Amino acid sequence: MFVTYLLYLLLGIFFGCITGLIPGIHVNLVCSILLFFNLNHYFAITIISMSITHTFLDTIPSAFLGIPSDVILNALPLHKETLNGNAFKGIYYTLIGSLFTTICSFCLIPISYLLLKHTYDYIKLSFPYVLFIIMIYLFFKNKPLKSKITFIFAFLIGYISLIQLSLKNPLFHLLSGFFALACLDFKKSTIPKQTIEYPQIKYKYIIVSLFSSFGGFLTSIAPGIGSAFAILIISIFKKFKEEDFLVLTGGINTANFYFSLIMFYLFDKSRNGSISAISNFITPNFESFLLFVLLSLLSGIIAFKIGIFFAKKFTLIIPKLNIKIINFVLISIIIFISFCFDGIIGLLILLSSTLVGIYSLKNNVSRKINLVSLIGPTLINLI
């Protein structure tokens, strides 16, 4: 039985490498393909290990290409490290964040289980008020007129995309525009020579990983709330140095998956595409929950080692390539996928969000304001 579990786990790690390292190929896409073939229940293990591995590796393309991972706010700090010749160091911080958060989240599962079991209904009722306060905070904290303009247009684009229109994948157009296409740099044709340097591991990263676990906890219990929103809430109360911020962002999606397993076991709720796919293979019970948690821990440890391996390889290979050509290919892929999802309407949403994203970058407007495109419609749906 253990050998069977291990084989399906390794298959998931293989899929996670593909989704993590190739922009545009997401975990949800692989889950959809697996469900199409009506496979046996062991593929739930494959989805578990794929999802965990993805959260470790998806920061690697962010570092070299500026394309955001699922944690969209970490793309610029990572790309900045790359432009300074320290891409490996930046990626290593995110890998440390994912690994430490894996361990912290694993240890916090009993407490989280009891907390959710007895307080989930009260927490759920409070979220509209929290979202409203965040909206007010974002509007009034950033005083320049250009910040207000970005706020208004980001909200309108999000409202139209997520509420007014019936699109197959509005989030793809919004996130790809605001946080991907808007960030591509065509002025540089090459990436500076990189150095492979292991930063010192500090005890404070454990504390930062606890914040990551808290962020993952928030995203697992709140409908429609992503990792970037959790980072936004945390950053209101605590400021992080750049290295600490990378550790924080590296771990949030990893923690989200752990706590999503608890939500699945306790309430039979699917908070992400992976959990939704798993629900097609098994019915939640304590034995499967315990198995998945242990396999997630094992997957995280393996993914950490694999992440270091690919970070080194990318560090050596990417500087030799023409970045303008890579960016052109990425743009073509994003436009193609956007059109396949929602046709001309999808492309218009993609273009609109890209223009607002470029406007905010050119005018030094905080990228957090673009999150209003997601927070606003979520608040409206919860009211």
Describe the secondary structure blueprint for this structure.
Blueprint: H1 2-21, H2 27-36, H3 43-57, H4 59-65, H5 75-83, H6 87-141, H7 145-164, H8 170-179, H9 204-221, H10 227-237, H11 242-267, H12 273-278, H13 286-317, H14 323-362, H15 372-382
Helix pairs in contact: 1-3, 1-13, 3-11, 3-13, 4-5, 4-6, 5-6, 6-9, 6-11, 6-13, 6-15, 7-14, 7-15, 8-14, 9-10, 9-11, 10-11, 11-13
Report on this structure:
- The chain has 383 residues and is mostly helical.
- It has one domain (2-382).
- It has 15 helices and no strands.
- It has helices at 2-21, 27-36, 43-57, 59-65, 75-83, 87-141, 145-164, 170-179, 204-221, 227-237, 242-267, 273-278, 286-317, 323-362, 372-382.
- Helix 6 crosses helix 11 and helix 7 (145-164) crosses helix 14.
- The longest helix has 55 residues, at 87-141.
Biggest sheet character: none
Output the structural class.
mainly alpha
Compute the number of helices.
Answer: 15
The counted number of beta strands is 0
Order of helices and strands: HHHHHHHHHHHHHHH
Helix content: over 70%
| Cα end-to-end separation | 48 Å
Number of domains: 1
Query: Shape from CA axes?
Result: globular
Average pLDDT score: 85
Strand content: under 5%
Rg? 20 Å
Residue ranges: pLDDT <50 for 5 or more in a row?
none
Name a few traits of the molecule.
383 residues; mainly alpha; 15 helices; single chain; 76% helix
What's this, in brief?
By secondary structure, the chain is mainly α. The chain has helices spanning 2-21, 27-36, 43-57, 59-65, 75-83, 87-141, 145-164, 170-179, 204-221, 227-237, 242-267, 273-278, 286-317, 323-362, 372-382.
